[in-house]
Specification:
By secondary structure, the protein is α/β, with parallel strands linked by helices. Helices cover about 20% and strands about 25% of the residues. The chain has helices spanning about 1-15, 95, 170-180, 185-190; strands at about 20-25, 40, 45, 50-55, 60, 65, 70-75, 80, 85, 90, 115, 115-120, 125, 130, 135, 140-145, 150, 155-160, 165-170. It has an 8-stranded mixed beta sheet with strand order 1-2-5-8-13-16-18-19. The longest helix has 16 residues, at about 1-15.
Length: about 190
């Protein structure tokens, strides 16, 4: 009996701590429901009240979404595992204040970096990417795995590297599929022409 209880307990805790996808439960601070949005139970929402998620978004395991300034992710985006999207940084303040960092008030005058991040619709962010503060990523972009984005990306950019550099246009990839089959054309035009 004792072994059985221990096995049940162990199984319960494995289940409890196992990452799983949460569907259709995100409510934005303004009361809107992020429809069909799925995110892992391991996502870390920092200052959640400043994070707005659109519909049909996928967010993978161990992602950090920082709303310290404000973060807006539009419809249809995919955020892969281990991505960090940051709207603040204290990398200057920590050096300026040294051991007195606790006196930092989180202002620009104190060397604290704050900047909104916006990721437009149907953008893909690859595994382990970092998006820095004050960045706007246009619609239909692809950010490669292990990239650091510290500047704006125009619509349809393919960018990778540290720092991320634009290396292509996602419409070129899309056109290969659209030319092979008309099946996607209506859907593609629907979001693309909004």
């Amino acid at each position: 009996m004792k072994k059985t209880l221990l096995e049940i307990r162990a199984k319960f805790f494995r289940w409890l701590h196992h990452p799983r996808m949460l569907n259709n439960i995100y409510i934005n601070n303004d009361g809107t429901h992020a429809k069909n949005t799925r995110f892992s139970s391991t996502v870390n929402f920092v200052n959640r009240q400043n994070i707005i998620l659109g519909d049909n978004i996928y967010i993978g395991n161990n992602v950090i979404l920082d709303g310290t300034s404000s973060l807006f992710i539009e419809n249809g985006c995919q955020i892969s595992a281990n991505v960090s999207i940051l709207t603040h940084s204290s990398h200057i303040s920590i050096r300026l204040f040294g051991e007195n960092y606790s006196e930092c008030k989180g202002t620009k005058e104190d060397g604290y970096v704050l900047g909104k991040v916006k990721i437009e619709k149907y953008t893909f962010i690859g595994t382990n990417a970092i998006i820095g503060p004050n960045v706007h990523i246009g619609k239909g972009c692809i950010v490669g795995a292990n990239s650091y984005v510290n500047s704006n990306l125009p619509d349809y950019s393919i960018a990778y590297g540290t720092p991320a550099k634009i290396v292509g246009d996602s419409r070129r990839i899309d056109s290969e599929y659209l030319n092979k089959s008309q099946r996607f054309q209506e859907y593609y035009n629907e979001w693309n022409n909004e």
